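Give me the fold.
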Amino acid sequence: MKWEGDAESSNVEDRRGMGGPIAVGGGITGVLALVLYLITGFNFNGGGGAGIQDAPRDAAQETKEVKFVKVVLHYTEEVWGAEFAKHHKRYREPKLDLFTGHVNSACGLADAAVGPFYCPSDDKVYIDLTFFDEMERRLHAPGEFARAYVIAHEVGHHVQNQFGISARVRPGDNDASVRLELQADYLGGVCLGFANRKHHFLESGDLDSALNAAFAIGDDTLQKRARGRVMPDKFTHGRSQQRVKWFKEGFTNPDVWFEKLDHFFEVRSSQDL
């Protein structure tokens, strides 16, 4: 992915080192745990073994990753600012908070085990950079464009929040949650599709890396990996094939995104998406 040298966002708040590691899974209220699971879909402590704070990280690698996050966030700001303006709306840029170990958000105390998440109460995306290691090690989803997909997906939740779409999902409504998550995959694809038209950052194999990441975090794939069986009634994010389908659809044909917003809630069941 050819991103180095592109403009960086000024909306990244670097709070790394201010939190430190805490017991994975601790300190999150039941309500926050549910919200974060609906958003991120995977608790990395569930598979046992070493915690995500165990592996030492290279300083130069982290410096590059921070610049990468800032560049990708700037892509999202460019795209959504322009697209909202086309529809006579003002895009309110989110902040992106980098943290280590745990962080206090407006949604409560969260630790790194929940993965990246968006908090609608403070319009912030939260990321612990160790998640990128986990994508490669545990989910077998390497590649910078796969990481860009994660960022664009979370910003997609911010777009949903500004359109009032997030309010359609009530805690415990798994079908609505799947619709919301697949739509965020779609919006992430739309954003990166538009951004690539302008910046031409895509290289050979990049799209496959993002599609691989989308497949790796499908409910059926995660359930099979964690429990050895698939339980469709427990889906909150959609099947792997659905996540791949909607990210790819957004990326390859982004111009019709506004007209497609209602589609995700018009079909009879999320299984039809």
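The beta strands are 12-14, 95-98, 102-105, 108-111, 117-119, 124-127.
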